[in-house]
Amino acid sequence: MIFTAILIPVLAGLILLLGPEWKNRKQLCGFTDAALLLSFLAVCVALGTTKENEAVTLFNLTTGLPIFFKIDGVSRFFAVLTGILWVPAGIYAFGYMEHEWKEKRYYGFYLLSYAVLTGLDFSGNLITFYLFYESMSLLTLPLVLHNGSKEAIMAGLKYLFFSLAGAYMVLFGLFLLNRFGNTLTFTAGGVLDAALLEGREGLLLAGAFLMILGFGVKAGMFPLHAWLPAAHPVAPAPASGVLSGMIAKCGVLGVIRTVFYLFGADFLRGTWVQQVWLVLSLTTVLLGSMMAYREKGLKKRLAYSTVSQVSYILFGLATLQWEGFTGAFLHTAAHALMKCGLFLVAGAIIFKTGKTKVEELSGIGRQMPVTMICYTLLSLSLIGIPPFGGFVSKWFLGRGGVNSGLPVFDILGPAVLLVSALLTAGYLLPISIRGFLGGEESVVRPEKKEPSFLMLAPIVLFTVLVTVLGICPDKVIGYITEIAKVLIKEGMTG
């Protein structure tokens, strides 16, 4: 069934890319919608019918290097999250892309991207993961390049360059693991061979660091973050939503697999790799927030915000402590919902008013009240205000930092997160305040400019989901804690 979940969007995407133009736009959107829903249904069936850690082999790349899939707790989490984002953002695109050119091409690559993300989530070993990871970079590139402008082409080239640079770093680590590991299969606790490891710890630590840095490119971690604020403003809004919400999280997934399933948390705990990783993640948190605070363009401000917020996740993982780990997974889900929703709001504003600058949005709340109410609630969650999902995730991240037992970082980490939260409030909430209280519309009744139901419904859905995550987080926390029990034994209290 895993093959089916990948094959459906592949076939549908190829039909759109290679087939003739569709004269009826409603049929084109209907076909894409059906393919997305059927693909997500196939993923859910695969999750329900495939046994835990059951290997499903696609083919053998060479002797001892199988390309295969395996479902575990992490893959379930990311596969469900991918579908929850990809399907509504695809439906939103049916309204947003109405006036865009090459609409069929966009949907074709959108479906193919969903296919490779599904394969990435279900990958059972590093070589399978690497192949789908590279495919993801290539197949999401057309989403960045879509409008064909000079700015889009330059942003696409930057995205490709950074992606390939990160992939080559990962490739170096792959070679080391193939030489000094028992297997490339993702194994809880790591795969390093103790007999081969002796005397080569420095080399393996360097390999681990390069892999973290390489996967950190997709996650927007400093100093290789520049592609993200370049790509988001030029991509269509639904593409920006999934790039921020899910593509950046593929880098996070790569870091999780590297640290907890290949090298092992125990191997990295207390080393220079952990300390440098902590420094880079906190630097990115603060740098991204400061750049977002200064940025005047709405989509680019949200892009810098993504740079900052995804490194919250990396910081939680870098503590190698179960509360930080739990906070990282919670923030992966919360940020995906929040930021995808915010980019869809930005797209709705651009679609209905043509306004792209923050200073142009005075009074927008009376023109688009439902849209801006959702924006405000999503912003409150991103800041970390209860009762939204962002508060729960940041609570665990802060506790993970304080209880990490890491000198300096047990104070510095939570302090940086707090400063970043204040900066987040500073660059998000003034838009809501001016949107509802500013402008000439405070005197004259404004013309309503709400987007269509197809565009508004996904925004409302993401707002509701992130609120539910904040009010009822127990089941998600329990699920993550079970994963943490297997991967992080030191300091695990429940």
Describe the 3D structure.
The chain has 494 residues and is mostly helical. The chain has a domain at 281-494. Helix content is 75%, strand content 3%. A two-stranded antiparallel sheet has the order 1-2. Strand 1 (55-62) and strand 2 form a beta hairpin. It is globular.
Topology of this structure?
Layout: H1 2-18, H2 25-49, E1 55-62, E2 65-70, H3 73-96, H4 103-122, H5 126-145, H6 150-180, H7 194-197, H8 201-218, H9 227-234, H10 237-263, H11 265-268, H12 272-294, H13 298-318, H14 322-353, H15 364-367, H16 369-383, H17 389-402, H18 409-437, H19 453-471, H20 474-487
Antiparallel strand pairs: 1-2
Descriptors:
20 helices; single chain; 494 residues; 3% strand; globular; mainly alpha; 75% helix; two-stranded antiparallel sheet; 2 strands
Low-confidence runs of at least 5 consecutive residues: none
Number of E strands: 2
- Which structural class should the secondary elements be placed in? mainly alpha
Count of DSSP-assigned helices? 20
Molecular shape: globular
Strand order of the largest sheet: 1-2
Overall mean pLDDT: 88
Radius of gyration: 22 Å
